[in-house]
Design goal:
The complex is a heterodimer of chains A (about 100) and B (about 160).
Chain A (H helix, E strand, L loop, with lengths): L2 H14 L20 H15 L5 H9 L5 H5 L1 H17 L6
Chain B lengths: L10 E6 L4 E7 L5 H5 L9 H19 L5 E12 L8 E11 L3 E10 L2 E13 L4 H13 L4 H5 L1
Antiparallel strand pairs in B: 1-2, 2-4, 3-6, 4-5, 5-6
The chains are: A mainly alpha (about 100), B alpha+beta (about 160).
C-alpha cells in the first residue's frame, strides 16, 4: 500500500466517519464506501490541502459522463492514489494536468 | 436588508481581488414581522439569517473572483457560531475570504460584526455551477449594481 493511499484513507475515515480498517486500496469511494458528492467535496478539500494540488474533479466527472473514463479509474482508492501521485509529480515538475 | 426578498447585503465596502477578500454592510431593519415572532418582546436576528448574510457575502466575493462565470450555491455550513445577539436597527459589517478554490467548489470563511464586536462566524463551502439561465444572470447583474459591486474591475 502506498503512502498516498494511507493518507487518503485516513482523510476519508476522519471526514466521513468510516472505520479506517474497512477502507482498502480496492474500495470504490462511491459504490463501496457510500460517499456522496457532498462528502466528496470535504474529501477533495482535505486532499487538495494535504498534497498542495487541485484535484480536477470537474474534468474527471465530465470524462465519466462522456464515457471517456470509468468511475473506477478515479474513485477506486488505489487508482485515486495514482492520480494524486501524478498531480503531485506534475506540480513538482511545474506542469499542469488540467486541474 | 430586504428580508422579504432574502436580499441581505446592502453595500459592498471593499473587494480585494488579489487577497480574495470582501467587506460588506448589511443594515438590519428596525422593524419587520420576523421580530414579532423571533421573539415577542425580545427581537433578535435569527441565526439562520445571519448565516445567510455571511453566505451572501461569500457569494459576492466568489462571483467577483470568478468574473461572474459561475454561480456559487451554498453546500456546507461548518463551525457556525452565534456569538452575540443582533438587534433590529443594527448595522452588520461582514468580512469574508476565500480559503480554498477547488475544482467546482470553494471553501470560504466569514465573520460579522456590529461595530467592533464579533457577532457570528462560519466556514462556508459552495458548489460553483454555471448560471442556470441568462435571466438569472441578468438578475445578478442588476443586483450587483444596486449594492455597488465594482463591475469595472471585472471588465478590465
Amino acid at each position: 500500500m502506498s503512502a498516498t493511499f494511507d493518507q487518503i484513507a485516513n482523510i476519508i475515515a476522519e471526514t466521513c466517519d468510516i472505520p479506517r480498517d474497512t477502507i482498502t486500496p480496492e474500495s470504490h469511494a462511491i459504490d463501496d464506501l457510500g460517499i456522496d458528492s457532498l462528502d466528496f467535496l470535504d474529501i477533495a478539500f482535505a486532499i487538495d490541502k494535504a498534497f498542495g494540488i487541485k484535484m480536477p474533479l470537474e474534468k474527471w466527472t465530465q470524462e465519466v459522463n462522456d464515457g471517456k473514463a470509468t468511475t473506477e479509474q478515479y474513485f477506486v482508492l488505489k487508482n485515486l492514489a495514482d492520480r494524486i501521485d501524478e498531480l503531485v509529480a506534475a506540480k513538482n515538475a511545474g506542469t499542469s494536468t488540467g486541474a | 436588508m430586504q428580508l422579504d426578498y432574502f436580499q441581505l447585503i446592502d453595500r459592498i465596502v471593499s473587494l480585494d481581488f488579489d487577497g480574495k477578500a470582501i467587506i460588506v454592510e448589511a443594515q438590519v431593519p428596525a422593524q419587520h414581522t420576523i421580530f414579532e415572532g423571533h421573539f415577542p418582546g425580545f427581537p433578535i436576528m435569527p441565526g439562520v439569517l445571519l448565516t445567510e448574510a455571511m453566505a451572501q457575502s461569500c457569494g459576492w466575493l466568489l462571483m467577483g473572483v470568478m468574473k461572474f462565470e459561475r454561480m456559487p450555491f451554498l453546500a456546507m455550513v461548518k463551525e457556525a457560531k452565534m456569538r452575540g445577539f443582533v438587534s433590529p436597527g443594527q448595522l452588520l459589517t461582514i468580512e469574508a475570504k476565500i480559503e480554498h478554490e477547488g475544482s467546482g467548489f470553494a471553501v470560504t470563511s466569514a465573520k460579522a460584526r456590529v461595530g467592533t464586536e464579533l457577532k457570528c462566524s462560519a466556514d462556508l463551502t459552495f458548489r460553483l455551477i454555471p448560471f442556470p439561465d441568462p435571466a438569472f444572470r441578468g438578475f445578478i447583474d442588476a443586483r450587483a449594481k444596486e449594492i455597488g459591486f465594482p463591475l469595472q474591475a471585472i471588465e478590465q
